[in-house]
Amino acid sequence: MMPRVRFAPSPTGYLHIGGARTALFNWLYARKNGGVFVLRIEDTDQERSTPESVQAILQGLQWLGIDWDEGPGVGGPFPPYTQMEKIGRYTQVAEMLISEGKAYRDYSTEEELTAARKAFAESKGLKEGDDFRKAGFKYRSPWRDATPTPEQLQTTAVVRFKMPDREGKFGFDDMVQKRIDKPFDDFDDFVLLRKDGIPLYNFSCVVDDHDMEINLVARGAEHVNSTFPQLMLYEALGWSPPAFAHMPLILGPDREKLSKRRHPEADVMLHRANGILPNALLNFIARLGWGHGNDELFSVAQLKELFDFTAVGKTNGVWNPEKLSSINAHWIKTSDPKAIAEAVLPFLHAAGVPEAVVDAKLEKAVMGFRERSKTLVEMAMKVKPYYTRGVTIEGEAAAKHLGLEGKQMLGRIRETLLGVTTWRAADLDPIVKVISEATGAKMGAIAQPLRVAVTGGTVSPGIGDTLELLGREEAMRRIDAALS
RNA sequence: GGCCCUGUCGUCUAGUGGCCUAGGACGGAGCCCUCUCACGGCUCAAACCCGGGUUCGAAUCCCGGCAGGGUCACCA
After folding, report:
1. Prediction pTM value
2. CB of A18 nearer than 7 A to strand B
3. Environment class of residue A111 by beta-carbon count within 10 Å: exposed (0-12), middle (13-18) or buried (19+)?
């Protein structure tokens, strides 16, 4: 059977890391198994959903390189892919359930419900300010088995699912969590449709997954508990449920579920701004919860080949910025330099080098700094001085390497450099050694004054590469400036 | 609090009864390489939550504690 999986974010903000990983695993699974990856927008929370968030999520996925086969922008055989555009469908399904006695209109007011919840909580000894959910309140609406009068039918009501009264437990086999069971008496008559006719998650999710012929629902483990009412809904509707895979959560440094509220690193685009490569982020989040033997580094192509839900663990993972950084460093130094040049370009522009373009010089700069940069931001900062005219020399570096002796040496180097005909690293590198042999000076006593003169500091790639990158004209200009 | 899930170095993990003197990676310490900084190479420190069973033998199976997380809405 061809897998049909989906990622169904609710557009209440940027794409967050947990969502990105859910999308990634679904996408990898579809790509590996020749399946279809569906993107669905769950915007039934009218309070918090915004069109800007939809765009932010789409852009986040695009940046990561996660493409969808059906959904916003691309369409598909089961439209619409945005829940608010198919309200009529949910109403229709709800009506069907009501007519079959599997759901009912509840005319209780919100105030009555709140009061009942509060009274129950207080009877359990909870006080004002406590979390009333702890009381284990289950609402038994007086309308559960009542027949509404014609007048009532004219007024609005929520629609509740009539949870069957049964003994014992029921459960399901999860591809990640294995068997999970729960006692029946744990469940409540949950709300299908709000008073305004807009469906709630547990309902719209089931209707859509069915309508879109989703056969594997892979989502975060925070949803395992909602799987039970959803399963009851499938049964009541006579629909066959999909398979499930509930992935472990990603935790913040404080060990709590990574949330937009408390954890800035939850924002996918923050990592882009920080100079993280998309494939590095993908590599990192894939390893949070999923593993393949002792391997750590995976290209997207390898991920597509190796990923499997059976290798996803059950333990939550803590966000580890150092590991991300190290994985990013790996992909910076091993990716095609031209691709890195393209990636670093916007950062270079932002750093104040608007004239930079992807050319031979930038690629050379990338080669010079790719082993020295953990992020694109860092690389841009390091590359920038090679694009300016002249350079400011750090006081400490000058004091250490451009004293009387240093300047004398620099003068000698200058004379030698004047005779160089081809300004290439291969020709420039040996000069340090030649002078060392001629004068008896240590290589460091030669390279460092030169390095400080042309870069302004004590740190740079090999001296030959540094000079070549600068170009003859600029290098000589800086040497002259240091000498004067 | 009820219910559900989890518990191997600080972190991510390998490990599915003997291959474990518990392996890898990040981070940490040190050494080597070296014109600087990096990269790279090598070495070291660092873990089976606790207690009972089962077994000739347990990180691996069972039970009980403890700890952590999730969830209990007219949010998703």
Report:
1. 0.95
2. no
3. exposed
